[in-house]
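user: can you give me the structure for this one chain? tokens are fine.
assistant: on it. calling the predictor now.
[tool input]
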Amino acid sequence: MLEKQARKSMKGYYLTTFLIGLGFFTMGLMDPLYDTYIPIFLGKYIESNALIGTIMTLDNMFAILLIPIFSAISDRTRTPIGRRMPFIISLLPLSAFAFGLIPFAALSSLAILIILIFGLNLFKQAVRGPVVALMPDMIPGDVRSEANGVINTMGGIATIVGTIGLAQLMNIKVNLPGRGPTNNILAFPLAGILVIVAVVLLFLFVKENKGAAKENASKEKVPVLQSIKRIFGEKEKSALFVLLSLLFWFIGYQGVLPFVGKYSVEVLKTSPGSAALAAGMVGISYAIFAIPSGVIAHRRGRKKTIRTALLGIMTVLVLIFVHSLIFTGDNVSQTMRMIPFWLLMFCFGAFWVTVITNSFPMLWQMADYANMGIYTGLYYFFSQLASIIAPPITGALIDLFGYGSLFLFAAMCMFIAFLMMSKVNRGEPQDDAAAATA
């Protein structure tokens, strides 16, 4: 009875969560376009997929350092507008500006393109941790799976806008001085404008200090190294096994993601404007299933829900591999190449968003206000480590064995993550309630 009284409901938090989700909207808008078209831009200058995969990891080297550092710094920041908001309103607009210039850099030279990619990721990865940590600062632990579902719905909507809406503008030719009609331009600057609009709305309507001050404003600052040492020194290793699990499922995901656009163009023979539609299918399923996946985990448990979703992802990846063998020949119609692939990517997105929606709240449930950003940074450290490890491996697999091999590699990684999750014993929605009644 006490536990039921301690449990909270999402009622009263939906609007706040939706507004916080504007920060996630910016990432959901930029990331799929970046992942789809940067390899294509690089492919104009570089033939080796392994080298393209390696270059795609250079930005993640920034991320693996910047996200944990800026997450921890934001934990200890105190300003009149909050501890996360100063980073959001300064670094996200800079990210938007750099993102909008990417296609123009691709027309100039490989060196300029890589420099701008570095600049973009310097700003974008530095702000990602504070953006993500804003939600658990303001939303109670009991309902963070549902809240993260709302957040991921916003990211899914952004992915739909970017991949199904803005990506189609890549087919439109723009008259550029000295070059004449040129395509593969418009989506990036327009996405940058939408990011700036989202930042303005987020700043105007989300009052960070008001939300955080209700219970947590008096919490003392905890030294960063002391917090990290305490996390990894715990006798109960659930946090460590969650981090190892997400390392492997992100190795699988990040191994596939950078090459889906190239796979669509080179193997499935789609147009450049349609290359992002596979990511668009993932975005649609994100928007549909993010909130239900959080509700299901609240009722059935996060661990059980995540492990079931990992089995679903493995199944989908094996089916995509089978599709790559059967439906990519010259005698197969374009419809039979694309429709089954898009349907499978839609299913992939449904299972993937279930994993992502509930894994972050599992870690946050093990944190307190003082080290929330550090847990967020550790999540991103392991996920970005995966994004450094994976693309060169899968790029080499493509060069050696063809595109189908990357789907089998990803399925194997999901299976390892499934096994790792069996070792996790904390992070369920009722954990905070139990603590409250202790």
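assistant: here you go. The domain at 10-212+224-427 is CATH 1.20.1250.20 (Growth Hormone; Chain: A;). Strands lie at 174-176, 180-182.
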